[in-house]
Amino acid sequence: MRITILTLTISLPGCRSLKEKRQRMGGLHERLGRNPAIAVCESGDHERHDASEWTFVVVGHTSRAVASLCSEIEEKCLQTVDGRVMEATRERL
Questions:
Q1: Terminal-residue alpha carbon distance, the chain
Q2: Phi-psi bin for 14: left (phi > 0), alpha (psi -120 to 50), beta?
Q3: Residue of 7, 63, 76 whose CA lies nearest to 35
Q4: According to the lineage, what is the superkingdom (predicted)?
Q5: Which of 23, 34, 70, 87 is deepest in the core (most CB within 10 A)?
Q6: pLDDT truncated to tens, each residue of the chain (93 aa)?
Q7: Could you give the strand order of the β-sheet that contains 38-44, starting from the edge strand earlier in sequence?
Q8: CA-based R_g, the chain, Å
Q9: What is the number of alpha carbons within 13 Å of residue 11 lying toward its C-beta?
Q10: Are 33 and 39 in contact (CB under 8 A)?
Q11: Model-level pTM?
């Protein structure tokens, strides 16, 4: 079993409230958390309007499968979140 922790730091320029922040993040937790190989949570910047940090724990039988899922998560964030991914870090356990 392979495990990787993927952390994304997302900038939300022009976001003025926590309500707007939730709308702009667009159900990220719901969409990606449906996959049983992915655990997801907002791990930082809870009180900031203009930023959000999300952590994903990705598991799989091979390193290739885990890397593929991590790339898929990053791509979905780029396509669906109304913001900019400022940093993406991967930590293999």
A1: 10
A2: left
A3: 76
A4: Bacteria
A5: 70
A6: 999 999 999 999 999 998 998 888 877 888 888 899 999 999 988 888 899 999 999 999 999 999 999 999 999 998 888 889 999 999 999
A7: 38-44, 51-60, 2-11, 84-92
A8: 13
A9: 6
A10: yes
A11: 0.89
Amino acid letter, residue 41:
C
- Distance of alpha carbon 58 from alpha carbon 82, whole angstroms: 23
Q: Which two tokens stand for residue 92?
A: 């293999």
Record the tokens describing residue 79, joined without a space.
Answer: 């396509």
C-beta neighbour count of 80 within 10 angstroms = 13
* Length of the chain as a residue count: 93
Q: Which of 36, 75, 58 has its CA nearest to residue 85?
A: 75
Distances (CA, A) of 14 to 50, 64, 85: 7, 37, 15
**Alpha-carbon separation of residue 2 from 8, 43, 72, 76 (angstroms):** 20, 22, 17, 22
